[in-house]
């Protein structure tokens, strides 16, 4: 098994970062504009990346200002069954965001590409929380 793990420090409150990661408004600025988002444990969020790239994430845990966990239930086969979590810790006006995507079957080229793209996702989160505009899929140039 392989895991992806990143740390991003955001100059914003944990409440603001949590909002960005759990609402349609926030996630549309951070990840993709094409989405259906619920804010209820057990619900399934849908994220579209182009015409034939749909990802569905079941919400496993929501602890406001502290933790978000999703389980991938539909996407690329390498993603299905992986868990994604965001742990938030606020210190001195900054929020430390620890992101993990766990339970990858093995390290592949797709894993490596996703590792890079999760770093870009966290950079987009930082931009949105600090400057008011993120870098979702539709605005990316890389």
Automatic annotation (TrEMBL):
Pfam families: AHSA1. This is SRPBCC domain-containing protein. Belongs to the AHA1 family. SUPFAM superfamilies: Bet v1-like. InterPro entries: ASHA1/2-like_C, START-like_dom_sf. Residues 11-128 form the Activator of Hsp90 ATPase homologue 1/2-like C-terminal domain. Transmembrane segments: none annotated. It comes from Paenibacillus pinisoli.
């Amino acid at each position: 098994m392989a895991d992806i793990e990143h740390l991003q420090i955001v100059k914003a409150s944990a409440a603001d970062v949590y909002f960005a990661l759990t609402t349609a408004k926030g996630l549309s600025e951070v990840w993709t504009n094409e989405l259906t988002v619920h804010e209820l444990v057990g619900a399934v969020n849908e994220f579209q990346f182009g015409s034939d790239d749909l990802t569905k994430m079941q919400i496993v845990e929501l602890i406001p200002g502290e933790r978000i966990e999703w389980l991938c239930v539909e996407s690329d086969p390498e993603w299905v069954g992986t868990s994604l979590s965001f742990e938030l810790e606020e210190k001195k006006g900054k929020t430390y965001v620890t992101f993990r995507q766990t339970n990858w079957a093995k390290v592949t080229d797709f894993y490596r590409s996703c590792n890079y793209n999760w770093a870009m996702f966290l950079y987009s989160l930082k931009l949105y929380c600090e400057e008011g505009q993120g870098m979702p899929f539709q605005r990316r140039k890389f």
